[in-house]
Amino acid sequence: MTAGAPGGAAIGADELARVFTCEIGRCTATLIRILGDIDLAQDAVAEAFAVAAERWPVTGMPANPGAWITTTARNRAFDRLRRESTRTNRYVAAYRLADTEMTDDPRSDADAGRDPEARELDQLADVIADDQLRLMFLCCHPALSPDAQVALTLRLLGGLDTTQIAHAFVVPEPTIAQRIVRAKRKLRDNHASYRIPPAAELPDRLGVVLAAISLIFTEGHTATSGPRLSRVDLSTEAIRLGRVLVELMPDEPEAVGLLALMLLTDARRDARTAPDGSMVRLSEQDRTAWNREQIVEGHDLVRACLRRNRPGPFQIQAAIAAVHADAITAEQTDWHQIVVLYDQLTALQPSAVVGLNRAVAVGEQLGPDAGLQALATIDVDDLATYQPYHAVHADLLARAGRRSDAVAAYDRAIALTSNPSERAFLVARRPEQLA
Asked: CB under 8 Å to 101, separation ≥6 — which residues?
């Protein structure tokens, strides 16, 4: 196995988790290109991370952890291919490709004289970003259904597990697992090309890529499980992917809109939890703790979208986030404008979740009874296991004075909550005197 460059101080579980989230998609992308096999690439990268989890807490993390993981995974995969005689030809082809990429490097003589291992790590780092874009569009191949495209992207690029993806889709875990297996098999059977599509094909795949990045951010913003409300590693990675996509497609306003939405939403991160880790609702947040730099950038992107005059769902959601960011205090929030924007969003993308968010805004603008009336127009069957629906319903019922109904709704929301910080918040909102 190739050893990494000397690292720094030993690292703990949190840092390992951060590196995993940041590097899993990049490393998997590069291995898929080299090996031409999604499952083999996934297994090899998983093995490399397992080795890192054993070594790095003792030896320290390499200077370039992503390249170290990729190199280790590649070598593990080649070792496995050597042992499988029926795949000798594939091994030889993959090895030659990788060897060419790592050695045919038009750099200076001085660079060529460096430690070969360090030079290889640097070269790997250079190709990873392009590989990740290729993986985005491979996952969003038109041979797959839209749901399968998003699920596969979340698994390969976002590093989310089946539990987290099932939560995002509000479907059982076995359904998601089967969907991912079938998607990989279909790509293999269709000999799907691992490349960035021609410009003419990009718009047809863009919507699914945006949806996948958005779901990665959502999982980071409010984690399905874990000790903290948020997973900063995931939300940060989603923003990074959003920037990569905007660089690739700067004239696509929906890509710009998603980046603006993520920046404006993430700007509130430090104010969303108290020092003890407990959740703080939007109306009670210390707005001086909001990240003004991200808000300024988000506003600039929203204005750029408005100038294009090609409205889309992510742009409208970004505009809603911008209205929140404009309010110096919660009382100054322009709820009328937010409701108008939700009406526009409903016209473009009618869904139960959009209806739920609109009901929240109506409840803030016109009071809880109006919010409950708006909520009553939603098909509850679509949101039966969706925790935010029951949390919103409980809050509106409590504010409307319907105490026993509020208790039942709070109990349902709490039962559907797996994040301890979020559960503690809901429990606190359901005081014993409501019972």
From this structure: 34, 123, 127
